[in-house]
Every structure is written in C-alpha cells, then in structure tokens.
Fold:
Amino acid sequence: MRLVFAGASNLVIKTVQQLNEQTRHDIIIIENDAALIDTLNDQLNAAFIQGDASLPSILKEANPTSCDFFFASTDRDESNMIAALTAKALGYKRVVVIIKEESYEPICQELGLEEIIIPLRTVRRDIINIIDGERERHLSDYIRADLRLFSFRVSSDTEAQSMADLGFPKDTKPIVVYDDRDTPRALSEEMMIQPGDEVVLLTHKSLLKTLENKFSRK
Structure:
C-alpha cells in the first residue's frame, strides 16, 4: 500500500516504525521541519516531502490518485482538518483525520470527513475496560485465520435505516453498534441504524475491499 502521513508527530513515527517491521509499504511523510526530516531519514524506511501538508502544491507531490491512504496526523487538530479537506479535494482515495478534541467530530462529519480517529476516546475505553475487569484478553486474541474487523460511521446527513437495508455481504456480521455518544447499542434484526452511529463488522479478509468501496467516504 502507498500511505501518506501529514506531520512527523510521535504517533506517526511510532506507527511507521511498526509498519516497517511488519510488512513492506510505500510510506511518505510530509513534514515542515527540515532538521527533523534529517534526523528521521536514518530511522525510518520512508520518503519525505518537506512542506506544509495543508497546501495543495505540497500534497500534489505525493501523487494523490496513486495513494491508498492519507492520514492527517499532525499535532494540531485544526491543521489536520484543513489538510484532510485539501487531500479529499485532490483525490486521495481514503482520507483519515486524527483529532484530539472530540467536539470537532460533528464538524468533521459536516465537512465530509467521516473517517475519524480520536486517540483519547480509545484510551478512555481502555481505562474503563480495565476498571470493569474486562480487559484480560485483547479482541485480537479471538480473531483468527482470515477473519477481520471493519468499521464505518454512518453519515450525519443520511436517514435512519434498518440493518437489512445496509446490505452487508454474505459472511459479514455486525458485532456492535456505537451511537454518536460512543455508547454501545443492543443488536437486533429490527434495530434502526441512526446517523452518526459507528457499525463494527466481523468479516472475511477477502471482503474488506468490497466493504471499503460500499461504506467508506467517496
């Protein structure tokens, strides 16, 4: 895969280091700080573009239409939102925005940025799970062979729809639905999926591309 990260934040550095260990990806990091690029050149198996990731001229250097993912991943939420909007306009296939402030989430959704990562939300979930004694094993311990998890958030500008109306492929099952306040909802055949809900699916790895094409943001 061809991956582009905006900003050489600590999160990006650690992520790229792990990606370098696991498998071969074509990784590009866009970073303004020339001195930091010089330092990281010897540490990471990645190409670097020096410049502001919110500028179209800089983002074009990565050849947007050839990239599988663009991660807006600087240390500033506002910069990430602008970079993500620019990347989306330039034709990057999938644009993921990382934000620290949860109140920005509905704004991102209104702007059409619906692949959103909120690290503090994940940390909060882990803390609560530890307190509740529910983290003795990771979910990945139960996902074996060719099974994979896939999640998507329902657009805020759509109407409520049933689980059946979503038309999941065969061998794909919903395992949890979170509402827009991050509260899990009980699954049932009759349940209505509301705007802002996040749906988590268990599926076969061969169906991931089909699910991405169907449910990921265009």
